[in-house]
Amino acid sequence: MSDFGVLPPNMVLEPMLRTWLLEDIGRGDRTTQALLAQDKTEGQAKWIAKAPGVIAGLPIAARVFRLLNEKVSLVPIVPEGSWAAQNEVIAEISGSLDALLTGERVALNIAMRLSGIATLTRKYVEQIGDLPAKLVDTRKTTPGLRLLEKYATQVGGAINHRMGLDDAVMIKDNHIAASGGIGEAIARVRSRIPYTLTVEVETETLEQVQEALHHQADIIMLDNMPLELMRDAVQIIRQHNSRVKIEASGNINLETIRTVAETGVDYISTSAPITQSKWLDLSMRIKS
């Protein structure tokens, strides 16, 4: 498992899982309930990766099955955060067959979505693995799935940006326009926020970078800057205050991320691992 992959506690995770199970089960699993008596028939199954990729979400899948029957056991064969080959068995499951069949789709859907995110995240991370810059995710997430999608980027090797609007101050272009400038925006938020929160400012020009530095922003984002301008901005920031963190964002993809990292920024944020990833195809097979 990635060193950074931290799951939400049960009291946070299980209400979500219960909601998703209820959505799928409705008034009952007509097929399974007609074929099998509840908790009467034990069986085994295996999960198979039908395409190569990074596995993420197995601990969550295990909780799905345990909500249906606490005695179900899911044993990972491929560790969370590791690559699986095509047709490789990634987990073995044992327990009440009715629980295995009823929970199959919800559990698989979660793992396929999260594994797809982790797989694309890993590809981005590998592009800059030998450089100091770190990959960071964004708030462009599926409503209701943010905790799990951001968990998947961690499993893939990225670092979480703020989880929500209450985590930190991030003064973007519209905030700057609404408040009359970077200096005024920073002054207002500094007077109203807890001292523990950091202040990040989005900049597009060297003049904005200088203003953000003058008003003591903690983090400066270089948004959609051409590479030469970005290099100049990094140099200005480093010379002024080496403790200010620098984030690059905008038009980041697998072809551009390395050249952006080579400018000397600390972080590179992109929504691509979440918004552009494909589900990793996984399947469950009952052992007869």
From TrEMBL:
GO BP terms, alphabetized: NAD+ biosynthetic process; quinolinate catabolic process
Metabolic or biological pathway, per its Swiss-Prot or TrEMBL entry: Cofactor biosynthesis; NAD(+) biosynthesis; nicotinate D-ribonucleotide from quinolinate: step 1/1
GO molecular function: nicotinate-nucleotide diphosphorylase (carboxylating) activity
UniProt GO cellular component terms: cytoplasm
The species this protein was found in: Aetokthonos hydrillicola Thurmond2011
Cited InterPro entries: Aldolase_TIM, NadC, NadC/ModD, Nicotinate_pribotase-like_C, Quinolinate_PRibosylTase_N_sf, Quinolinate_PRibosylTrfase_C, Quinolinate_PRibosylTrfase_N
Xref: SUPFAM superfamilies: Nicotinate/Quinolinate PRTase C-terminal domain-like, Nicotinate/Quinolinate PRTase N-terminal domain-like
Catalyzed reactions: nicotinate beta-D-ribonucleotide + CO2 + diphosphate = quinolinate + 5-phospho-alpha-D-ribose 1-diphosphate + 2 H(+)
Official protein name in the record: Probable nicotinate-nucleotide pyrophosphorylase [carboxylating]
Entry EC no(s): 2.4.2.19
Role according to the record: Involved in the catabolism of quinolinic acid (QA).
UniProt-listed PANTHER family: NICOTINATE-NUCLEOTIDE PYROPHOSPHORYLASE [CARBOXYLATING]
The family this protein is said to belong to: Belongs to the NadC/ModD family.
Quinolinate phosphoribosyl transferase N-terminal domain span: 29-115
